[in-house]
Design a protein that fits this description.
By secondary structure, the protein is an alpha+beta fold. It has one domain: 4-Layer Sandwich (CNF1/YfiH-like putative cysteine hydrolases), CATH 3.60.140. Helices cover 19% and strands 29% of the residues. It contains 7 helices and 15 strands. Strands 1, 2, 3, 4, 7 and 15 form a 6-stranded mixed sheet that branches. A 6-stranded mixed sheet has the order 5-6-9-8-10-14. A 3-stranded antiparallel sheet has the order 11-13-12. The model has no long low-confidence stretch (mean pLDDT 95). The protein binds zinc ion. Zinc ion binds next to loops.
Length: 231
Amino acid sequence: MKILKKEYSILFGDQSASYVKHSLKGCTQKELSSKPPFSDFAGMPLVFLNQVHGTKGYCIDTPAAAQIAPYAFDGDYMVTTLLGVALVVETADCVPLVLLDSVKMVAALVHAGWRGAIGGIVTNALHDMFMRGSAPEDIQAFCGPAARGCCYEVGKDFKQLFRETSAFIVRDGRIFFDNVSYITGQLETMGIGKHHIFLNNAACTICSEGYCSYRRQGSLQLRQMTIVALK
Ligand SMILES: [Zn+2]
């Protein structure tokens, strides 16, 4: 699914253009830009981090900072103020979260698994946007495909890790977690308006065919790409 606006492009990819986790290591920018879905962003540097389910990010405020090899730095979110830089995350059940301020022109892309979300990665990315002049009322948030509350079964011990429990659903004595809902709550706490939070691309990767899902596919290890660029 592509969202194309005058100020930005977002691509929420699926299994049709997926890659085995970390398999793009060693690719040059030229090689990357000839592969789908990256070819949609041809001509822009593509920035990938080595995702570690942490809460740290990488800020790209200079053209030099965009010229890094795929997976050269550890981190789980990127923030940029530059036009024409394509931020990329790989996911298979974790939430790809795009944050966009098209007033001050600041973009962020977050790889938000439950560990990152509980650790504050969404807040960290928003703070980096605020430091670059963004105001909460100008930020739009788009969640991509992720494991949702219809399928993402967890145990009691998992639930006890969370203070906020509204993202859990109990059905027939089984507990399900919806990380998209958990992240939405965090966005609202940080001042992002409900009307600026878009979930129409947040299909459940476990029960929707066509998406990579770690839980459904196990050892297959395929990852779908989410890409965002200011333009
Ligand atoms: Zn589902």
